[in-house]
Amino acid sequence: MEKDIGRIKKNDTTEVVVRIDDFGGKAGLTIREFVTSDRYTGFTKSGVRIQSADFKKFKEMINSIKEADMKDPEKKEEEEQDISEDY
Questions:
Q1: How far apart are CA 14 and CA 51, in angstroms?
Q2: How far apart are the first and last CA of the chain?
Q3: What does the alpha-carbon distance between residue 53 and residue 26 come to, in Å, rounded to a whole number?
Q4: 53-67: per-residue pLDDT in tens?
Q5: Are 7 and 15 contacting, i.e. CB atoms less than 8 angstroms apart?
Q6: In the chain, what are the domains?
Q7: Which segments within the chain are labelled E, that is strand?
Q8: Cα→Cα distances 74→34, 70, 77, 81, 86, Å
Q9: Where does residue 9 rank: exposed (0-12), middle (13-18), buried (19+ CB within 10 A)?
């Protein structure tokens, strides 16, 4: 069983692929780089696999991240300065 959930373009030749798969008879979530080039096309060793037993914890961790946490440090500083100037 393989089900692609989505792809994120990393650069001209590499995408990050999120998929549900069955490896060694066990279901899990795989996040892996996929390369398309003249020399090689396919998945690389770069990535991680979350076993189905750990998926609930992984999902909780991801869902705990706020969008504000993902802003670049420079943008965070600018916004904090803007807020402090208002007071």
A1: 24
A2: 56
A3: 10
A4: 999 999 999 999 998
A5: yes
A6: 2-85 (2.30.31.10)
A7: 2-9, 14-23, 26-36, 41-51
A8: 31, 12, 5, 11, 19
A9: exposed
Rounded CA separation 26/29 (Å): 10
Residue 20 CA to residue 26 CA, distance in Å, equals: 10
Residues 6+ apart with CB under 8 A from 75: none
Q: What is the pLDDT of residue 82?
A: 61
**Gap between the Cα atoms of 29 and 3, Å rounded:** 10
Judge whether 35 and 11 are in contact, CB under 8 Å. no
Higher model confidence: residue 23 or residue 20? 20
**In this predicted model, what pLDDT tens digit does every residue of 21-60 receive, in sequence order?**
998 889 999 999 999 999 999 999 989 999 999 999 999 9
Predicted TM-score of the model (pTM): 0.72
